[in-house]
Amino acid sequence: PVGTGPYRFVSAVREDKIVMEAYDKYNGPRPAKAKKMIWRLMSDPSARVSALKSGRVQAIEDVPYIDLKGFTGQDKVESVQSF
Fold this sequence. Notes:
Strand order of the largest sheet: 1-2-3
Radius of gyration: 15 Å
Shape: globular
Number of helices: 1
Largest sheet: 3 strands, antiparallel
Distance between the termini: 26 Å
Order of helices and strands: EEEH
Structural class: alpha+beta
Oligomer: single chain
């Protein structure tokens, strides 16, 4: 692994997921808030939206504009603009 951030690489499955866990020896200014993270790799925008709505994932990126209305007014959804 490269770097000494708050998480360390555990495993990866091509075109499926990347697994990371908190790095206990990290002592930087922003420690890990979760013990483990699984990044699901979903290229299909509809699959990402469906996974978020069903609770299978906690965050997604690149939400299609047409699907934004479906999240309006939900307390558990926070929209963050990047780039």
